[in-house]
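TASK: fixed-backbone design
INPUT:
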């Protein structure tokens, strides 16, 4: 995200997604449980790189068996799994386009075959197309809706059906919903929808002790943010934050891990802004 205009507060959740139909299982079977295994399972969409990859690695470090998901970046997804296994964790990677509801269902089914169930779902996959309203193409707008909004819904729907009691469901929003900068209108709208998804789903799962929240990152050092920007532009954005730096994917992963921990259970139906104070 980026931007120049701040506006009144509002919490938001994100959408995750991607587009196609098939999945492919990489690291075909889970390895023997690492000594520090907590016996629980996490599925993170869009986790071949960036925030998703950092989250997969962090949750594995915390003892979760992890399913890594990608749409296209098979080599990167396999690399995340190798990193997790080298550190003594358990992981597989699965290719699935989360904008396809059938592919999402198969993703969850494959995770269950590998690990027996799921306790944590992080809906992270998403894309960004920036343009003023007058120049936004039908194709770019439709693609963001398909991936970010519909895709997140499909992931959260399967999570609602499959996450075990006491689990966590987390979706990625963006602090651009607060900044509301020019050219970000369509993207911000797909992220803003996630606030409603998370808040309402938390209520629908009442009695199952499942906490559902959204994380709204700010300026994060990922290709989603940096692509198309000069080094001077990126430095200018960093200067706007109180800490005078961009966030790193691990900063966001740490917040997600805190919500997944036992002490995070009472935070429910909320959007947590992890943006270093830019909003």
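OUTPUT:
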């Amino acid at each position: 995200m980026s931007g120049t205009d701040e506006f009144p507060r509002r919490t938001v959740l994100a959408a995750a997604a991607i587009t196609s139909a098939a999945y492919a299982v990489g690291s075909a079977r889970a390895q023997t449980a690492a000594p520090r295994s907590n016996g629980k399972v996490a599925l993170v969409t869009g986790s071949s790189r960036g925030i998703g990859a950092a989250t997969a690695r962090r949750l594995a470090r915390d003892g979760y068996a992890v399913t890594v998901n990608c749409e296209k970046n098979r080599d990167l997804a396999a690399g995340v799994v190798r990193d997790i296994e080298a550190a003594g964790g358990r992981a597989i990677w699965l290719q699935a386009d989360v904008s396809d509801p059938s592919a999402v269902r198969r993703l969850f089914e494959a995770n269950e075959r590998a690990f027996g169930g799921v306790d944590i779902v992080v809906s992270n996959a998403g894309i960004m197309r920036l343009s003023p309203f007058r120049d936004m193409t039908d194709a770019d707008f439709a693609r963001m809706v398909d991936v970010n909004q519909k895709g997140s819904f499909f992931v959260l729907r399967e999570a609602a059906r499959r996450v075990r009691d006491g689990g966590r469901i987390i979706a990625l929003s963006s602090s651009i919903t607060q900044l509301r900068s020019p050219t970000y209108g369509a993207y911000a709208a797909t992220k803003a929808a996630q606030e409603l998804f998370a808040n309402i789903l938390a209520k629908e799962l009442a009695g199952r002790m499942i906490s559902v929240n959204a994380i709204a990152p700010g300026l994060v050092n990922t290709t989603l943010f940096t692509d198309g920007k000069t080094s001077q532009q990126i430095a200018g954005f960093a200067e706007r934050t109180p800490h005078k730096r961009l966030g790193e994917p691990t900063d966001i992963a740490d917040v997600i891990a805190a919500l997944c921990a036992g002490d995070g259970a009472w935070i429910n139906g909320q959007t947590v802004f992890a943006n270093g104070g830019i909003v």
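COMMENT: The chain has nine helices and seven strands.
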